[in-house]
Amino acid sequence: GPKEQQTIDFARLLADRIESGRTGHEFERLVLVASPAFLGHLRASLGADTRRLVAGELDHDYVKMNPAEIRKQLPDAFFPEPVR
């Protein structure tokens, strides 16, 4: 239906932005966090080169949480040690 198409379109838009970030060397690795259904659409929309940079995935919907609450829910392994 229309809502599903909007979800797919948004996943493609987000994937395009992520692809742009990859080609612009804005990140070296990527962790995807999204609801299970959206994560599937996003994963399907990413190119092979970008999928190789995915260091982790978490299929959970955190949309109603603020950034500090979300960070508490994410595994420490998603955050590399700072360079000293």
Write the layout of secondary structure elements.
Elements: H1 2-23, E1 30-34, H2 36-45, H3 48-51, E2 54-59, H4 67-73
Parallel strand pairs: 1-2
Helix pairs in contact: 1-2
Describe the 3D structure.
This protein is α+β, with helices and mostly antiparallel strands and 84 residues long. Helices cover 51% and strands 13% of the residues. It has four helices and two strands; from the N terminus they run H-E-H-H-E-H. It has helices at residues 2-23, 36-45, 48-51, 67-73; strands at residues 30-34, 54-59. A two-stranded parallel ribbon has the order 1-2. Helix 1 crosses helix 2 (36-45). It is globular, with a radius of gyration of 14 Å. The mean pLDDT is 91.
Question: Which key terms come to mind for this protein?
Answer:
84 residues, alpha+beta, 2 strands, globular
> What is the β-strand count?
2
Unreliable spans: none
As a percent range, the share of helical residues equals 40-55%
What would the principal axes of the Cα set say about the shape?
Answer: globular
Quickly count the helices: 4
What is the H-and-E element order?
HEHHEH
**How far apart are the first and last residues' alpha carbons, in Å?**
51 Å
Task: Provide the β-strand percentage band.
Answer: 5-15%
Strand order of the largest sheet: 1-2
Radius of gyration: 14 Å
